[in-house]
Amino acid sequence: MSTFLSGSRIKLFMLFVIAHAFFVSYSSAYWQPYPSLDGNLTVAGNTILEGSLTVTGSTSFLGSISNLNVTGATTLVGNTIEHGTLTITGSTTNLGATLLVGNTIEQGTFDSFGRTQAHGSFTVTGSTSLIGAAGLASTLRVTGATTLVGNTIEHGTLTITGSTTNLGATLLVGNTIEQGTFDSFGRTQAHGSFTVTGSTSLIGAVKTTSSVAIGTTRFFAQKTSIASIGTSPTNILTINFSNLAGFSAPLFKGAYVRLYCFVAGNVFGLSSVNDYVSELIISPGATGGASCTEVVVVENTTTAVGNPTTITSSISGTGTAATIALSSSSSMTNQSVFIIYEILSDNLSSVV
After folding, report:
1. Is the dihedral of CA 77, 78, 79, 80 positive or negative?
2. CB half-sphere exposure, 292, CA atoms < 13 A
3. Residue 321 sits in which domain range?
4. What is the CATH number of the domain that holds 334?
5. Hey, which of 109-113, 129-133, 137-141, 260-264 has the most confident mean pLDDT?
6. 324 contacts 257 by C-beta, under 8 angstroms
């Protein structure tokens, strides 16, 4: 059946159709409490949402988003490029690798519980505290001032090309090699061995409370620890040989000892000042301290003031040590004793 409308009747029918369509679409969109969209929703132009948009499933943003506020958990599966400012007020967990191409500014606390690597430059403008052990597989370069508050243990090589100031104690467990100038303006102590393989210049005074070894065959020093010399032998010098293992290692060349002894005191009520000089040879071929004997080359006592006395030497020994003693022919009181000695031998260990 065909229907033809013309003139004003056609216009009235068109208005009726438009009103019906508007009524159906308005009732579907605004009258239903929970409208749903079963298919795809494609918006070709700009879309403004004045209220909230809740998405319970997955959502893909193919274009750019100006402001995105996510209150729940967020998983970034692909690449994320942040050309502006990325602000994170809560905690952030990176399970995979994170590539930061530009600058990263952390104004709060940065905690890394796992392994953290900086393959490029890592610049810290503020203070840095290393609570645990810090392992450096490559070079650590410090261009500014460095303060080491606690203990520092260097098991490998520590190279310092500039100046270094040690305000506190420094413990060097291994070897320390100084190829440049070593300046010490304060008190410097070497409690163990101090070996200088090159030349050494001592510009000022040198004070030692023990003996000084030149090479491996010569010892010399002064001694002020002897309070007095009695009429019985008083031990003044003990020479420790490095090896006197019986007949397998005897004292082949012996030992040469030169003694200077200044003795001042009171002899028979008068002040007496005496100068003792001797040159002694500890017998060659000794196989132990007990077998050491002395040969007197020179022994002389000169009395400068007061009643005279004569000082003589003797030797005894045990183990690998030989002890030289001095005795006075006259009893002296209120003594002052000063001794200088020099020892030459190819088998010396120490002198006390």
Report:
1. negative
2. 29
3. 212-351
4. 2.60.40
5. 260-264
6. yes
What letter represents residue 260's amino acid? Y
327 alpha-carbon distance from chain centroid: 53
CA–CA separation, 179 and 103 (whole Å):
40
Q: What are residue 279's phi and psi, to 5 degrees?
A: -125, 120
Contact 294, 324 (CB under 8 A): yes
Residue 90 lies in a domain: no
Q: In this structure, what are the phi and psi dihedrals at residue 340, rounded to the nearest 5 degrees?
A: -125, 135
Task: Flag whether pLDDT at 188 surpasses 90.
Answer: no
Q: Which residues of 258-280 are buried (b: 16+ CB within 10 A; e: fewer)?
A: bbebebbbebeeeebebebebeb
Does some domain include residue 267? Answer: yes
Residues with Cβ within 8 Å of 279's Cβ and at least 6 positions away in sequence, in order, are 256, 257, 258, 259, 296, 297, 298, 299
| 53-84 pLDDT per residue, tens | 777 777 777 766 766 777 767 776 666 666 66
CB neighbour list of residue 287: distance below 8 Å, 6 or more residues apart: 244, 245, 246, 247, 249, 250, 251
Quote the pTM value. 0.47
In a domain, 239, yes or no: yes
Number of compact structural domains in the chain: 1
Alpha carbon distance 164, 25 (integer Å): 84
pLDDT, average across residues 330-335:
93
**Strand order from edge to edge, sheet including 234-241:** 311-318, 321-328, 234-241, 348-351
Instruction: List the structure tokens of 69.
Output: 């506020």
- Judge whether 302 lies within some domain: yes
